[in-house]
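To: structure desk
From: M.T.
Subject: fold request, one chain
Message: Could you run this one when you get a chance? Sequence is below, nothing fancy, just the single chain.
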Amino acid sequence: MLIPRIPVGDTVEFAVDWIEGNFGLFLDLTSKQLDLLISGLKDALLFLPPEFFIPGISLLSYFAGKRNIKLAAGTAFGFFLIENMELWELSMETLALVLSSALLALIIGIPLGILSAKNNILFHVVKPALDFMQTMPSFVYLIPALIFFGLGNVPGMIATVVFAMPPAIRLTNLGIRQVPKELTEVADAFGSTGWQKLSKVELPVALPTIMAGVNQCIMLSLSMVVVAAMIGVRGLGYQVLFGIQRVDIGMGFEAGLAIVIIAIFLDRITQYLSPR
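Reply: Done. Structure tokens follow.
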């Protein structure tokens, strides 16, 4: 060939090695803090035994669902089935990892979406990065996370955050941009500051779209947590992977069913919390 091969892979490998060599102490500190977050949330979820947790989560579903008795009954039956299949502790570990990953993704993604809606230059910088993050196969994220943080829940959390963040950024940006100009002009006419206009006009109007991004972020977090079992993430994903390795159809199906129950619960709750 007349044009020499561009060393894309070698460049990425060099960048990863450089980050690991120069920021190793920071990565270790971050890993410990994130591990504490995951462990603390898991301990909180396991603090109550299933006999008390299931009625509590059913009441939460009832009131969050605007007194929807079907949602409460479905939640109670689903979590009872998880306990009956002896997957309670694994399910709580998965739920803790999903919630912590989604929380971190939203803490980063929503402010970044607001900033990109306010700044077109930043938006044009962020947009190709989001395209890259959403189209890159999810397994690829596991490699640098594994190198930086080793085996365990923390690299799975980092890979999940990267994978689940784009919908939160995109839909927050979209929601802010779709606020009618008439409303912002009225806010300007009354002398609102930038923060007042954002908090009292733009965010309330954009909230349904932002909540759709929250919903998608949580769903993607759950799907990625299962994939991340390949790098030592515990929970239901590891149970599915173990079932595949042993060709144990029953074990894999039960763990998959528990994941579906958690996914439906989180999806319905976030949908009911979204304003109409």
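Reply (cont.): Residues 13-47+85-273 form a domain with the MetI-like fold fold (CATH 1.10.3720.10). Let me know if you need anything else for the meeting.
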